[in-house]
Amino acid sequence: MPRPSAAKPRYHADLAISMPAAEWRLKAGFGGIVVDRDQNSMPDTKLSKRLLRITFLIVLLWSLVSSMMLGQVDLKVRPAPDFGGDGVWLDQGAPAPHHITEYRGRVVLIDFWEYTCINCIRDFGVVKSWYGRYHQFGLDVIGVHYGEFNMGFKVDNVRAAAQRFRLPWPVVADQKGSTWKTFAADGWPNRYVIDPQGNIVMKVFGEFGNHEMEMKIRELLAVAHPEVMKIPADPNEDNLKASCGVPTQETFVGEIYGRSAIDDMGGHHAGEEADFQPVHSAPDGGVMLAGRWRVERDGVIADNHGSENHGAAAEVRYHARSLYSVLSLTGPKSIRVNLFQDGVPLPKEAAGADVKFDDKGAYIDVTDSRMYYLVRSPSFGAHLVALQPEIPGLGLHSFTYGNNCQLEDQP
User: Fold this and answer.
1) At how many degrees (to 10) do helices 210-222 and 118-134 cross?
2) Rounded to two decimals, what is the model's pTM?
């Protein structure tokens, strides 16, 4: 999850909120191809074939670009800086050393993570397997948490997340970003391998390079423990290849990074409240609001439900296998959020891990501020999903997505 700077491209759509999609959309990465098709008309066959060929080439190109952008391996050797002195250490067991120099003689993996980041969460399983396999031979893991949204700077939230994810290694809550800055971290996840002499010998950014990182860890450990090389390593898998599917890019809802995906923002800015009245459906990668919401820098908050369009709602259009959303509470201890897909209640076969069902349909109980698992479709596809909170106080911050090869998302 990089810290993006480019503005999100915007696309035209002409459907009212909560109505099913009536267009065909193809998108590949940033600024991808979007083709709209009316239900009652068919495109020219030759043109369609040309568009499909062009799209296929762009998907292949995007897979290569995403490998470079989402997974960068840096082999520059330099001394590892120390942890910032203003971090809050969340030691789960015996106190861990809080200075890099105290780890001399051991191989250290520094994992910069964010507790709402699905990219980080999907990688926890990989790092846990390494820790279980190599810790006895001298591998230590230190998690450094630096927040992306305001909720990420509350130590109690970070502590609860570390416990929920069952992280067996020490975690430091980098509240002021001092460690983030000294390591020159630039996104999540960011992982650094430090050799026994205290040098950074590898940096891997993103969900990529796991095979290369494990090989480097084994190489360093084998100097003192050659038996490490007899332990089977993880298979070399690429979860970002084109055949896995290229999902919609991360969708930010607030003004964070200057990339708000709200398509009907209407000139409103952080700190303002407004009654949103959508005139068309959300475009791919876009969010459409209905009802009264308060705009914040890192999201929007559902406010008074007394508006003419009968309550607050938000919809997102995307293409992926899985859909996740970062949600928060700003008052109530629990908010029921009803879920709809393509104009009807979300079906059970497409439900994410947090979804429940009753006689009213699909819903989630938002009980704390975190990332929620909304959709796990039977197959990769394009959908329009709507969220309807039953009472005010819901914070909506972002949507993220998963492809056909990123199904291990609950460490």
Assistant:
1) 20
2) 0.82
